[in-house]
Each structure stands twice: as C-alpha cells, then as structure tokens.
Amino acid sequence: MEAVIQKECSALGGLFQTVIGDMKSSYPVWEDFITKAGKLQSQLRATVAAAAAFLDAFQKVADLATNSRGVCVCVVCVCGF
C-alpha cells in the first residue's frame, strides 16, 4: 500500500514540476500579451474620446445649419443631399 502511495506522489510531483516548468517558459509571452492589451485599451479610449469630440463638433455645425439658411445649403452640398 505504501509503495502505491509513494508511486502516486512521485507521479503527482513530476506533473507539478512539468506544469511549473511550462508556466515559467510561457511567462514572457503572457507578460507581452498583457502589456499590449493595456496599450490597446488606452488607444481605444483615446479613439472613443476623439470620436465623441468630433460628433459634438458636428452636432454644433448641424445646429448652426438649422438656424442659418446659408450654412444649411453649404452642409447639404457637402453631404450630397
């Protein structure tokens, strides 16, 4: 019985060593992935902020065009309506 337990513990220890070895070798890949994901997140936030600012500015132009006949004609010509 003790021999079976010893054999199972040895197999479990070997499996643990293999898993730890694999994790150590893949750490740089995961670190690079996390770094790039953080950069992507910050760029996406900047893109969303820029798009929101653009839409706000365009809304101001549209509001101005609604109140002014000359600008309205210009916006219609630019948009192709």
TrEMBL record:
GO terms for MF: actin binding; phospholipid binding
PANTHER family with a match to the protein in the record: ACTIN BUNDLING/MISSING IN METASTASIS-RELATED, PROTEIN MTSS 1
GO cellular component, one term: cytoplasmic side of plasma membrane
The name this protein goes by in its record: IMD domain-containing protein
Organism (species): Muraenolepis orangiensis
Domain IMD, first and last residues per copy: 1-81
Alphabetical list of Pfam families matching this protein: IMD
Superkingdom of this protein's organism: Eukaryota
GO biological process terms on file: adherens junction maintenance; plasma membrane organization; positive regulation of actin filament bundle assembly
